[in-house]
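Can you please make up a whole protein chain along with its backbone structure tokens because I've never seen that pairing?
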Amino acid sequence: MKQRIHANGIDISYEVAGEGPWLIFSHSLGCGKAMWQPQFEALAKSHRVLRYDTRGHGESSAPAGPYTLDLLAQDVKALCDALDIRTCHFVGLSMGGMIGQTVALNYPELLLSLTLANTSSFYGPQAQPFWQTRSQTALTQGMAPLVEPSMARWFTAPFRASQPALMQQASQWIMETPPVGYSACCQAIAVIDTTAMLERIKIPVLVIAGADDAATPPAMAERIHAQIAGSRLVSLKPAAHISSIEQADRFTDALRDFLSEA
């Protein structure tokens, strides 16, 4: 059942199902909690699963920016405090993975394990014009111009061609994202620079890459994997950026196996 709670100065929309250890899912930029449907249903058989809409997305509040990854991590901590979640497993994809890294670094006592999918720990100055353009496009032209390039990054061409209904749904996620929230999140993730700090993460970590992911290429996953001692790296193919959807069963199986050991 969908619910809303006031935490860290905003209303956060979330959904909970199942029983067992807490398992939190954090979504990609331009998506919402609905993107986790395959994993939400499957893992609710063994965990108390929570998926939520990030600040600036879905049914959560979208206040004016700027946002930072520290702020988005504070939202997670405040949500956990409000729901009396003392410890949890955390799964984040793309922006959600960046939030997950920040939660692990800022609130290490909260996490039992961390899964980082299709994400990065660093972009660098060469990527700043790209993020600035996306941010300004959302503010000045709305979300429509961002749909086609986002879909091309999210999914491989054969998958897009074979799943028209799903592509329509994913396009709608982008269109329904508040431009001010999208823009503010672009600014937050553009400056991520956690690589040197990742060695501080001592909990079990699963890193998932999409072999065909041009947005966060496998080299970014390999860099994260190399920085976190004992982490596990899984590559899914064919899969572009939203590997949790394009390879839903294999993604879920990898996550389930990891959680059973973590």
Notes: The longest strand covers residues 10-17. DSSP finds eleven helices and eight strands in the chain.
